[in-house]
Design a protein that fits this description.
Layout lengths: L40 E6 L14 H8 L14 H4 L2 E6 L7 H17 L3 E6 L5 H8 L5 E6 L20 H7 L3 E11 L7 H9 L2 E4 H7 L1 H12 L3 E7 L21 H9 L5 E8 L10 H19 L1
Helix pairs in contact: 1-10, 3-4, 4-5, 7-8, 9-10
Length: about 325
């Protein structure tokens, strides 16, 4: 039986437009809360986009994602999973970044997630730009490299930007491989597409053994076939899931900084997550939701729907 303390507020008890918004109307349990040791999965906001190199805005993502998440109900209508009954879930709040200092922000995020890991909590993160994934991985993979399933239209494997700047939203997974946080043989990147500067990132992926599945192959083979390969690559070892909202076609998710046409629709965006069932997921993130580019909130609603699917897979596993 689930702990009543961790039961989300029902829309039948308090209208969804009322109350202080937390992720999915869960209790707010900061790291110094007396119930922190009872949390199994913690939802965390990282309102930070200092790694953005063109269109900023993901720093506002967690706030809009929380607001739109009041639409999430207790059960998954497709899979039947009821995550809030299976495990104790809570909103752990935001990591406070330093918007004037990338290195200080990276250190702050890693320190926060190290405490989350020490508490035995699996984190589910709402970003923030994609550089957010690097400090999270520094904490979660401190004991050894992990595998990763990565949904994106970009590999984020570039060496550097702008005369040697090593830390941008286009470089996190290059750094993660170099730092021994990811096992390249257990990493798969799905949905890669768009125009290119060059193929330096793809060359790096090939050289270290990362499997890149471009969008053309994704559609040619179909979701079930591609995701079966993704599960095989990740195996049963510790696996991180990183989901950039620009994996989805901008017709369905325009609120992002680096959109690429020709991607999956909203249903397919959820379907790929359901196909992660059975993996040993130690943490996951949903990044690059940028509210200034979608005032309707539709991108954020799709984002929290993806977060809920990730939560369901983590809870069922």
């Amino acid at each position: 039986m689930s702990d009543p303390f961790f039961t989300p507020v029902s829309g039948f008890e308090l209208p969804r437009f009322a109350g202080v918004p937390t992720f999915m109307r869960l209790p707010h349990v900061p790291l110094d809360h007396p119930r922190i040791g009872d949390v199994d999965i913690g939802l965390i906001g990282v309102p930070w986009d200092s790694g953005t190199t063109n269109r900023p805005g993901p720093r506002h993502g967690p706030r809009q994602l929380r607001d739109m998440s009041t639409m999430i109900r207790a059960g998954n209508g497709a899979t039947g999973v009821r995550p809030f009954e299976a495990l104790n879930c809570a909103d752990l709040g935001d990591v406070g970044p330093n918007p004037a200092d990338i290195q200080d922000s990276l250190a702050r995020i890693t320190e926060f997630y190290a405490k989350v890991k020490q508490s035995g909590i699996r984190p589910l993160t709402a970003g923030g730009d994609h550089l957010t994934s690097l400090p999270v991985l520094r904490a979660l993979a401190a004991d050894g490299p992990v595998g990763m399933v990565h949904f994106d239209s970009h590999t984020d494997l570039f060496h550097s930007y702008f005369n040697g700047q090593m830390y941008t939203h286009g470089t996190p997974f290059r750094r993660a491989v170099e730092e021994g946080l990811l096992d390249p043989a257990r990493v798969v990147q799905i949905g890669i597409r768009g125009t290119v500067y060059d193929f330096e990132d793809r060359d790096f992926a090939r050289d270290v053994g990362i499997r890149v599945i471009p969008i053309e192959e994704f559609f040619d083979r179909g979701i079930a076939h591609v995701m079966a390969e993704a599960r095989e690559i990740a195996g049963q070892g510790a696996t991180y899931v990183s989901y950039d909202i620009d994996f989805v076609d901008p017709a369905f998710a325009p609120g992002t900084g680096t959109p690429e046409v020709g991607g999956p629709n909203a249903f397919q965006a959820l379907q790929v997550v359901r196909e992660l069932a059975g993996l040993n997921i130690i943490g996951a993130d949903l990044v690059e939701v940028s509210p200034p580019f979608d005032a309707s909130g539709n991108t954020a609603f799709l984002g929290v729907s993806i977060l809920f699917e990730l939560l369901c897979v983590m809870a069922a596993g």
